[in-house]
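Subject line: Sequence and fold of a protein, written as structure tokens
Body of memo: The sequence and its backbone structure tokens, given next.
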Amino acid sequence: MTAFDDLENAINEEAEKTPTSDSSSDSSNSGESQTSSESYDSYESQTSEEPEDPRKTPAFEFSPDLRRSIYAREESWQEFEDARDLEMTRELRDAGVRNHESREVHDAMVRLAADNPEKMARLVLDARGIDEEQ
């Protein structure tokens, strides 16, 4: 599993759903409301049924609007992938989660960074070779 497998799958699914012919704005608006209605109906049917097992379903749905690019040095990315593959995946499996999505890992990575702004600043300063004591 690569870091972007679920992203590629979602893009491919979205491409299959996208109409290939141009249509008027009226017909595209009706398509949007139909999609919204279908989403709502789907949500309603899910809420009336038993809740899904959080060990088997992603924490949140894929949304192409939420994609962001990040840039990291190769050695930093390799360390991240090793930690993810060797340690984090083991922790998740120990908790009964066997099908985590890359978007969940990336979301956790961003939340971890947001919870530790001082450490983030220290890491940036260290990468630049700046000693905070000076």
Confidence is low (pLDDT under 50) at residues 18-47.
